[in-house]
Protein backbone atom coordinates (compact mmCIF):
# COMPACT_ATOMS: atom_id res chain seq x y z
CA UNK A 1 0.00 0.00 0.00
CA UNK A 2 1.28 3.44 -0.91
CA UNK A 3 0.31 6.27 1.45
CA UNK A 4 1.05 9.92 0.69
CA UNK A 5 0.59 12.47 3.47
CA UNK A 6 0.23 16.10 2.37
CA UNK A 7 0.98 18.79 4.95
CA UNK A 8 2.53 22.24 4.99
CA UNK A 9 5.12 21.46 7.67
CA UNK A 10 6.91 18.17 8.35
CA UNK A 11 9.74 16.67 10.33
CA UNK A 12 12.71 16.94 10.18
CA UNK A 13 12.33 20.39 8.57
CA UNK A 14 10.02 21.68 11.31
CA UNK A 15 8.93 20.47 14.74
CA UNK A 16 5.41 20.98 16.06
CA UNK A 17 2.21 19.17 17.03
CA UNK A 18 0.91 18.51 13.51
CA UNK A 19 4.38 17.45 12.40
CA UNK A 20 4.50 14.90 15.23
CA UNK A 21 1.06 13.54 14.30
CA UNK A 22 1.98 13.07 10.63
CA UNK A 23 5.34 11.51 11.45
CA UNK A 24 3.75 9.14 14.00
CA UNK A 25 1.26 7.93 11.40
CA UNK A 26 3.97 7.58 8.75
CA UNK A 27 6.48 5.70 10.90
CA UNK A 28 3.87 3.28 12.20
CA UNK A 29 2.57 2.43 8.76
CA UNK A 30 6.10 1.94 7.41
CA UNK A 31 7.45 -0.11 10.29
CA UNK A 32 4.41 -2.07 11.42
CA UNK A 33 2.07 -2.30 8.44
CA UNK A 34 4.66 -2.39 5.63
CA UNK A 35 3.26 0.61 3.78
CA UNK A 36 5.33 2.77 1.48
CA UNK A 37 4.87 6.26 2.92
CA UNK A 38 5.86 9.65 1.56
CA UNK A 39 5.23 12.99 3.25
CA UNK A 40 4.89 15.92 0.85
CA UNK A 41 5.30 19.31 2.52
CA UNK A 42 5.31 22.92 1.43
CA UNK A 43 8.21 24.11 3.55
CA UNK A 44 11.52 22.28 3.65
CA UNK A 45 14.69 21.59 1.77
CA UNK A 46 14.76 18.84 -0.83
CA UNK A 47 14.09 15.21 0.06
CA UNK A 48 15.29 13.22 3.08
CA UNK A 49 14.61 9.85 4.65
CA UNK A 50 13.55 10.42 8.25
CA UNK A 51 13.13 7.29 10.39
CA UNK A 52 12.28 5.25 7.31
CA UNK A 53 9.86 7.82 5.90
CA UNK A 54 10.50 9.76 2.69
CA UNK A 55 9.89 13.46 3.34
CA UNK A 56 9.91 15.73 0.32
CA UNK A 57 9.38 19.47 0.04
CA UNK A 58 7.29 20.50 -2.96
CA UNK A 59 6.63 24.16 -2.29
CA UNK A 60 8.25 25.19 -5.58
CA UNK A 61 6.66 22.46 -7.71
CA UNK A 62 4.21 23.36 -10.45
CA UNK A 63 0.69 21.95 -10.32
CA UNK A 64 1.68 19.42 -12.99
CA UNK A 65 4.77 18.29 -11.08
CA UNK A 66 2.84 18.11 -7.82
CA UNK A 67 0.15 15.91 -9.37
CA UNK A 68 2.90 13.67 -10.78
CA UNK A 69 4.08 13.05 -7.21
CA UNK A 70 0.65 11.63 -6.36
CA UNK A 71 0.64 9.01 -9.11
CA UNK A 72 0.32 5.40 -8.02
CA UNK A 73 -0.97 6.26 -4.56
CA UNK A 74 -3.46 4.04 -2.77
CA UNK A 75 -4.27 6.61 -0.10
CA UNK A 76 -3.75 10.37 -0.01
CA UNK A 77 -4.11 11.97 3.41
CA UNK A 78 -4.31 15.76 3.42
CA UNK A 79 -3.58 17.05 6.90
CA UNK A 80 -5.30 20.47 7.27
CA UNK A 81 -7.36 22.46 4.83
CA UNK A 82 -4.49 24.97 4.99
CA UNK A 83 -2.44 22.65 2.79
CA UNK A 84 -1.30 24.87 -0.04
CA UNK A 85 -2.24 22.42 -2.81
CA UNK A 86 -5.62 21.26 -1.53
CA UNK A 87 -7.41 23.15 -4.32
CA UNK A 88 -5.25 21.38 -6.90
CA UNK A 89 -6.18 17.99 -5.40
CA UNK A 90 -9.89 18.79 -5.34
CA UNK A 91 -9.86 20.18 -8.87
CA UNK A 92 -8.35 16.90 -10.09
CA UNK A 93 -10.00 14.53 -7.63
CA UNK A 94 -11.36 12.21 -10.36
CA UNK A 95 -8.01 11.72 -12.08
CA UNK A 96 -5.85 11.28 -8.96
CA UNK A 97 -5.13 7.70 -7.93
CA UNK A 98 -6.26 6.31 -4.62
CA UNK A 99 -8.57 7.14 -1.75
CA UNK A 100 -8.64 10.79 -0.68
CA UNK A 101 -8.85 11.53 3.04
CA UNK A 102 -8.85 14.97 4.65
CA UNK A 103 -8.29 15.90 8.29
CA UNK A 104 -9.34 19.57 8.19
CA UNK A 105 -7.66 20.61 11.49
CA UNK A 106 -10.05 23.49 11.99
CA UNK A 107 -11.42 24.04 8.48
CA UNK A 108 -9.97 27.52 8.87
CA UNK A 109 -9.94 28.27 5.14
CA UNK A 110 -13.08 26.42 4.13
CA UNK A 111 -15.10 28.11 6.90
CA UNK A 112 -13.60 31.51 6.12
CA UNK A 113 -15.66 34.35 4.67
CA UNK A 114 -12.62 35.73 2.86
CA UNK A 115 -13.18 35.84 -0.92
CA UNK A 116 -9.85 34.13 -1.71
CA UNK A 117 -11.09 30.93 -0.03
CA UNK A 118 -14.55 30.82 -1.61
CA UNK A 119 -13.32 28.65 -4.49
CA UNK A 120 -11.73 26.17 -2.08
CA UNK A 121 -14.92 25.94 -0.03
CA UNK A 122 -17.00 25.27 -3.16
CA UNK A 123 -14.55 22.60 -4.32
CA UNK A 124 -14.65 20.89 -0.93
CA UNK A 125 -18.43 20.65 -0.68
CA UNK A 126 -18.94 19.87 -4.38
CA UNK A 127 -16.61 16.88 -4.03
CA UNK A 128 -17.56 15.81 -0.52
CA UNK A 129 -18.92 12.44 -1.72
CA UNK A 130 -15.52 11.62 -3.23
CA UNK A 131 -13.45 12.14 -0.08
CA UNK A 132 -13.39 10.85 3.45
CA UNK A 133 -13.17 13.33 6.30
CA UNK A 134 -12.04 12.76 9.88
CA UNK A 135 -11.34 15.07 12.82
CA UNK A 136 -9.54 14.64 16.13
CA UNK A 137 -12.44 15.79 18.29
CA UNK A 138 -16.20 16.28 18.06
CA UNK A 139 -15.89 19.53 20.06
CA UNK A 140 -13.78 21.61 17.70
CA UNK A 141 -14.84 24.20 15.12
CA UNK A 142 -14.31 21.85 12.18
CA UNK A 143 -16.52 19.04 13.47
CA UNK A 144 -19.24 21.45 14.61
CA UNK A 145 -19.25 23.08 11.18
CA UNK A 146 -19.34 19.71 9.39
CA UNK A 147 -22.31 18.66 11.52
CA UNK A 148 -24.07 21.90 10.64
CA UNK A 149 -23.48 21.19 6.94
CA UNK A 150 -24.67 17.58 7.25
CA UNK A 151 -21.28 16.10 6.32
CA UNK A 152 -20.45 12.61 7.53
CA UNK A 153 -17.06 12.32 9.21
CA UNK A 154 -15.10 10.01 11.49
CA UNK A 155 -13.27 10.84 14.70
CA UNK A 156 -9.73 9.57 15.25
CA UNK A 157 -8.26 11.05 18.42
CA UNK A 158 -4.75 12.32 18.82
CA UNK A 159 -2.68 9.80 20.73
CA UNK A 160 0.57 9.28 22.61
CA UNK A 161 3.14 6.54 22.22
CA UNK A 162 3.49 5.54 25.86
CA UNK A 163 6.63 3.56 25.09
CA UNK A 164 8.26 6.84 24.11
CA UNK A 165 7.09 8.61 27.27
CA UNK A 166 9.24 7.25 30.08
CA UNK A 167 11.48 9.03 32.55
CA UNK A 168 15.20 8.54 31.98
CA UNK A 169 18.33 9.14 34.05
CA UNK A 170 19.14 12.23 31.98
CA UNK A 171 19.73 15.18 34.33
CA UNK A 172 17.52 17.70 32.56
CA UNK A 173 17.90 20.55 35.06
CA UNK A 174 21.66 20.29 35.19
CA UNK A 175 21.96 20.12 31.41
CA UNK A 176 19.90 23.28 30.92
CA UNK A 177 21.27 25.03 34.02
CA UNK A 178 17.95 25.33 35.85
CA UNK A 179 18.53 26.03 39.54
CA UNK A 180 14.97 26.49 40.83
CA UNK A 181 13.05 23.84 42.73
CA UNK A 182 10.08 23.89 40.34
CA UNK A 183 9.54 24.33 36.61
CA UNK A 184 6.43 25.66 34.88
CA UNK A 185 6.59 24.24 31.37
CA UNK A 186 5.14 25.44 28.08
CA UNK A 187 5.99 23.46 24.92
CA UNK A 188 4.52 25.38 22.00
CA UNK A 189 5.76 27.11 18.90
CA UNK A 190 5.36 30.85 18.73
CA UNK A 191 2.26 31.25 16.59
CA UNK A 192 -0.07 34.13 17.36
CA UNK A 193 -2.95 32.83 19.44
CA UNK A 194 -0.89 30.24 21.32
CA UNK A 195 -1.07 32.43 24.40
CA UNK A 196 2.56 33.18 25.23
CA UNK A 197 1.59 36.84 25.56
CA UNK A 198 -1.13 35.89 28.07
CA UNK A 199 1.32 33.89 30.17
CA UNK A 200 3.68 36.85 30.65
CA UNK A 201 1.38 38.80 33.04
CA UNK A 202 0.43 35.52 34.71
CA UNK A 203 4.09 34.90 35.50
CA UNK A 204 4.40 38.51 36.64
CA UNK A 205 1.64 37.84 39.18
CA UNK A 206 3.64 34.89 40.49
CA UNK A 207 7.06 36.53 40.40
CA UNK A 208 7.08 37.35 44.11
CA UNK A 209 7.86 33.64 44.46
CA UNK A 210 11.44 32.48 44.02
CA UNK A 211 10.86 28.73 43.80
CA UNK A 212 10.14 28.34 40.06
CA UNK A 213 11.44 28.89 36.57
CA UNK A 214 9.21 29.06 33.49
CA UNK A 215 10.49 27.11 30.52
CA UNK A 216 9.32 27.98 27.00
CA UNK A 217 10.37 25.26 24.55
CA UNK A 218 9.85 25.86 20.83
CA UNK A 219 11.30 25.28 17.37
CA UNK A 220 12.69 27.64 14.79
CA UNK A 221 10.18 28.16 11.97
CA UNK A 222 10.82 29.01 8.34
CA UNK A 223 8.32 31.88 8.40
CA UNK A 224 10.08 35.05 9.70
CA UNK A 225 6.86 36.49 11.15
CA UNK A 226 6.66 33.76 13.80
CA UNK A 227 10.32 33.97 14.72
CA UNK A 228 9.87 37.73 15.13
CA UNK A 229 6.92 37.04 17.44
CA UNK A 230 9.13 34.79 19.58
CA UNK A 231 11.74 37.55 19.76
CA UNK A 232 9.13 40.08 20.88
CA UNK A 233 7.88 37.78 23.64
CA UNK A 234 11.45 37.19 24.76
CA UNK A 235 12.18 40.93 24.81
CA UNK A 236 9.02 41.64 26.83
CA UNK A 237 9.89 38.90 29.33
CA UNK A 238 13.35 40.40 29.78
CA UNK A 239 11.94 43.90 30.18
CA UNK A 240 9.46 42.63 32.81
CA UNK A 241 12.20 40.77 34.68
CA UNK A 242 10.40 37.45 34.49
CA UNK A 243 12.01 34.10 35.43
CA UNK A 244 11.57 32.63 31.95
CA UNK A 245 14.10 30.52 30.10
CA UNK A 246 13.66 30.24 26.32
CA UNK A 247 14.96 27.03 24.71
CA UNK A 248 14.58 26.07 21.07
CA UNK A 249 15.43 23.23 18.70
CA UNK A 250 16.33 20.68 21.36
CA UNK A 251 16.30 16.90 20.80
CA UNK A 252 12.96 15.13 21.04
CA UNK A 253 14.16 13.02 23.99
CA UNK A 254 15.00 16.22 25.90
CA UNK A 255 11.52 17.59 25.22
CA UNK A 256 10.04 14.42 26.71
CA UNK A 257 12.24 14.68 29.79
CA UNK A 258 11.16 18.31 30.25
CA UNK A 259 7.66 17.02 31.05
CA UNK A 260 8.99 14.61 33.66
CA UNK A 261 11.12 17.30 35.31
CA UNK A 262 8.41 19.97 35.62
CA UNK A 263 5.81 20.75 38.26
CA UNK A 264 3.00 21.91 35.96
CA UNK A 265 2.28 22.58 32.30
CA UNK A 266 0.87 26.01 31.46
CA UNK A 267 -0.93 26.69 28.18
CA UNK A 268 -2.51 30.00 27.20
CA UNK A 269 -3.81 29.14 23.73
CA UNK A 270 -7.20 30.56 22.76
CA UNK A 271 -7.94 28.11 19.91
CA UNK A 272 -7.10 24.40 19.61
CA UNK A 273 -8.54 21.14 18.35
CA UNK A 274 -6.92 18.40 20.43
CA UNK A 275 -3.66 19.91 21.68
CA UNK A 276 -0.91 17.31 21.57
CA UNK A 277 1.15 19.16 24.18
CA UNK A 278 -1.62 18.69 26.77
CA UNK A 279 -1.81 14.98 25.95
CA UNK A 280 1.97 14.72 26.29
CA UNK A 281 1.75 16.43 29.66
CA UNK A 282 -0.84 13.88 30.75
CA UNK A 283 1.32 11.00 29.48
CA UNK A 284 4.11 12.18 31.77
CA UNK A 285 1.76 12.50 34.74
CA UNK A 286 2.24 16.28 34.69
CA UNK A 287 -0.77 18.39 35.73
CA UNK A 288 -1.77 21.20 33.39
CA UNK A 289 -3.63 24.52 33.31
CA UNK A 290 -5.39 25.48 30.09
CA UNK A 291 -8.35 27.34 28.71
CA UNK A 292 -11.33 25.28 27.54
CA UNK A 293 -10.22 25.03 23.93
CA UNK A 294 -11.10 22.16 21.60
CA UNK A 295 -11.49 18.89 23.50
CA UNK A 296 -9.60 20.11 26.58
CA UNK A 297 -12.79 20.17 28.72
CA UNK A 298 -13.11 16.41 28.14
CA UNK A 299 -9.58 15.65 29.33
CA UNK A 300 -8.38 14.76 32.82
CA UNK A 301 -5.35 15.58 34.90
CA UNK A 302 -5.49 19.36 34.90
CA UNK A 303 -7.35 22.58 35.54
CA UNK A 304 -9.61 23.81 32.73
CA UNK A 305 -10.58 27.50 32.68
CA UNK A 306 -13.51 28.77 30.60
CA UNK A 307 -12.31 30.30 27.33
CA UNK A 308 -14.15 33.55 28.07
CA UNK A 309 -11.26 34.34 30.47
CA UNK A 310 -8.58 34.18 27.76
CA UNK A 311 -8.44 37.92 27.10
CA UNK A 312 -5.53 39.71 28.74
CA UNK A 313 -7.39 41.47 31.52
CA UNK A 314 -6.42 41.85 35.17
CA UNK A 315 -9.17 39.60 36.52
CA UNK A 316 -8.48 36.85 34.00
CA UNK A 317 -4.74 36.94 34.63
CA UNK A 318 -5.33 36.77 38.38
CA UNK A 319 -7.67 33.79 37.99
CA UNK A 320 -5.17 31.88 35.89
CA UNK A 321 -2.25 32.68 38.19
CA UNK A 322 -4.25 31.50 41.22
CA UNK A 323 -4.87 28.13 39.54
CA UNK A 324 -1.16 27.78 38.79
CA UNK A 325 -0.23 28.73 42.34
CA UNK A 326 -2.59 26.09 43.74
CA UNK A 327 -0.54 23.51 41.86
CA UNK A 328 2.80 24.96 42.92
CA UNK A 329 1.73 24.89 46.57
CA UNK A 330 0.63 21.25 46.78
CA UNK A 331 2.63 18.17 45.84
CA UNK A 332 -0.38 15.99 46.67
CA UNK A 333 -2.64 18.00 44.36
CA UNK A 334 -0.13 17.78 41.54
CA UNK A 335 0.36 14.05 42.04
CA UNK A 336 -3.36 13.34 42.15
CA UNK A 337 -4.12 15.28 38.98
CA UNK A 338 -1.10 13.81 37.21
CA UNK A 339 -2.22 10.27 37.95
CA UNK A 340 -5.71 11.01 36.62
CA UNK A 341 -4.23 12.38 33.41
CA UNK A 342 -2.05 9.34 32.78
CA UNK A 343 -4.93 6.95 33.34
CA UNK A 344 -7.05 8.94 30.88
CA UNK A 345 -4.32 8.69 28.25
CA UNK A 346 -4.08 4.94 28.73
CA UNK A 347 -7.82 4.59 28.28
CA UNK A 348 -8.56 6.98 25.41
CA UNK A 349 -5.37 8.28 23.77
CA UNK A 350 -2.93 5.36 23.67
CA UNK A 351 -1.31 5.12 20.23
CA UNK A 352 -1.30 1.31 20.42
CA UNK A 353 -5.09 1.48 20.22
CA UNK A 354 -5.53 4.54 18.01
CA UNK A 355 -3.20 3.33 15.24
CA UNK A 356 -5.73 0.60 14.43
CA UNK A 357 -8.39 3.27 13.94
CA UNK A 358 -6.18 4.83 11.27
CA UNK A 359 -5.68 1.43 9.66
CA UNK A 360 -9.43 0.90 9.54
CA UNK A 361 -9.92 4.38 8.09
CA UNK A 362 -7.33 3.78 5.39
CA UNK A 363 -8.39 0.27 4.44
CA UNK A 364 -12.15 0.08 4.94
Shape: globular
Determine the structural class based on helices, strands and strand pairing.
alpha/beta
What's the CATH first level of the largest domain? Alpha Beta
- What is the CATH fold-level name of the largest domain? Rossmann fold
SSE layout:
Layout: E1 2-7, H1 17-31, E2 36-41, E3 47-50, E4 53-57, H2 63-69, E5 75-79, H3 86-91, E6 99-103, H4 118-126, E7 132-135, H5 141-148, E8 154-155, H6 172-175, E9 182-187, H7 196-206, E10 212-218, H8 224-240, E11 244-248, H9 252-260, E12 264-266, H10 276-283, E13 288-291, E14 302-305, H11 314-328, H12 331-348, H13 351-363
Helix pairs in contact: 7-8, 7-11, 10-12
Notes on the structure:
Helix content is 38%, strand content 18%. The chain is built from 13 helices and 14 strands. The protein has an 8-stranded mixed sheet with strand order 3-4-2-1-5-6-7-8, with helices on one face. Helix 5 (141-148) links the parallel strand 7 (132-135) and strand 8. The two termini are 13 Å apart. The mean pLDDT is 95.
Amino acid sequence: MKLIICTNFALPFHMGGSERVCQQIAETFVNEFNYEVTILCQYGNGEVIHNGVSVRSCGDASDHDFLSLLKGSDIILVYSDNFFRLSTILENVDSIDGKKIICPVGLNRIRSNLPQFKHLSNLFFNNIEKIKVFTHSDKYDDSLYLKQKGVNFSIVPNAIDLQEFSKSDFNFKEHYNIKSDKILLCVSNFFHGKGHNFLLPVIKCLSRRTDFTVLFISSTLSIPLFNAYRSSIQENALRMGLPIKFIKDIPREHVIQSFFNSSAFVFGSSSECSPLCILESMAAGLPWVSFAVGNVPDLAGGICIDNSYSKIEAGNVKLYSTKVENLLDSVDFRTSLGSQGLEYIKKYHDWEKVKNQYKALFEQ
